[in-house]
Design goal:
This protein is about 30% helix and about 25% strand. By secondary structure, it is α/β, with parallel strands linked by helices. Helix 1 crosses helix 10, helix 2 (about 120-145) crosses helix 3 (about 160-170) and helix 2 packs across helix 8 (about 280-290). The longest helix has 23 residues, at about 120-145. The two termini are about 20 Å apart.
């Protein structure tokens, strides 16, 4: 029986083209679990894999989609049985392995997580890798001492997927959230998620060349890196932490000095969502079900179909996607 999938092909000139086509289960890679996909989402990596690949895609033709949620149809692994609701994020699915931009996906059982109680598959993809990463960042900050009332928590790239979910979670937990954005028109959106302060990106873009600045932030979820992270590190309060989740502003930490680390005891925490162990994945998803307000999650959602993905993939690479895209692969 055939079904729809977004297929990316590369021609002899190295140019890629994506379109929705019909394939069968015989076309899917070998693995233990066949899932009827219900929803997926759009992340920055998805934009790369739909478009130029950027070294993430190993072989063509390819089905992108680094996240999906759906229902198990077949399983040779005893951990899952037909009818089970499951979520997948990470493990290089959608990059090295065919992913969730199809009505069916076949993947390894080790890569799946049971859908947390209280979440629908649609809500799980409104969260997706971006929201999962945001929760990992919040958990890391908490593990390093962050508590409500300690002062404002900065979220950079706040209107993006990770930043939107981080803002909503932190505000729900009782933190004062300062949201950084370069798009002033997003202020009302961010305040609706719970941000109490909007920080223009220009306020943090330039390096002052000072070794330290006034102690301002009690914690930070940083999705930007580059010059902004270098500046933020100098403004952290004593003994606080920055959870680094992205590099939209560049892979280098421009203007960074050792002084925040040795004079204020600041911690820089690297957050990886791709290879997280199963137990920590469960912990994060359980926290998401408990600590992410579903009404605020819904306010972030932009619905989409498989046919919309080539356009959305290009848009997210240009920073033109706000919040979370939920892709109904059966629409």
């Amino acid at each position: 029986m055939s079904f729809n999938a977004l297929i990316v092909e590369k021609d002899e000139d190295g140019k890629t083209h994506a379109e929705v086509r019909q394939i069968t289960t015989d076309d899917l890679p070998e693995a233990e679990v066949l899932v009827a996909v219900e929803y997926s989402t759009v992340n920055y990596k998805d934009g790369l894999c739909i478009g130029p690949g950027a070294g993430l895609v190993r072989h063509y033709p390819h089905v992108p989609g680094i996240d999906f949620a759906g229902t198990v149809e077949e399983s040779s692994d005893p951990r899952y049985k037909p009818g089970d609701k499951v979520v997948l994020t990470g493990w290089r699915v959608g990059e090295a392995h065919w992913g969730g931009y199809a009505q069916k996906a076949r993947v390894r059982a080790d890569w799946l997580v049971p859908l947390p109680e209280g979440l629908t598959t649609r809500q799980a993809m409104a969260v997706g890798t971006a929201g999962f990463t945001a929760m990992l960042a919040v958990m890391a900050l908490e593990d390093h001492g962050l508590k409500p009332g300690a002062g404002p928590v900065l979220v950079t790239g706040a209107a993006g997927g990770v930043g939107s979910v981080a803002t909503a979670i932190l505000a729900h937990l009782g933190h004062e959230v300062a949201a950084v954005t370069g798009r002033p028109e997003q202020a009302d959106y961010l305040k609706g998620l719970g941000a109490s302060q909007i920080v223009p990106r220009t306020d943090l873009n330039e390096d002052t060349r000072k070794p330290l600045e006034s102690e301002t932030w009690a914690g930070c979820v940083d999705a930007v890196a580059g010059a902004m992270l270098g500046r933020v590190l100098k403004q952290m309060k004593y003994g606080t932490s920055v959870a680094a989740v992205g590099l939209a502003g560049g892979a280098a930490i421009e203007g960074a000095l050792i002084t925040p680390f040795i004079l204020r005891g600041v911690n820089l925490l690297g957050i990886d969502s791709v290879m997280q162990p199963f137990d920590n994945r469960l912990r994060a998803w359980e926290r998401i079900a408990r600590d992410l307000p579903m009404d605020r999650l819904e306010s972030m959602v932009q619905p989409a179909t498989l046919a919309d993905l080539p356009r959305l993939g290009a848009d997210i690479l240009k920073g033109q996607v706000r919040g979370r895209v939920v892709v109904d692969v059966n629409a």
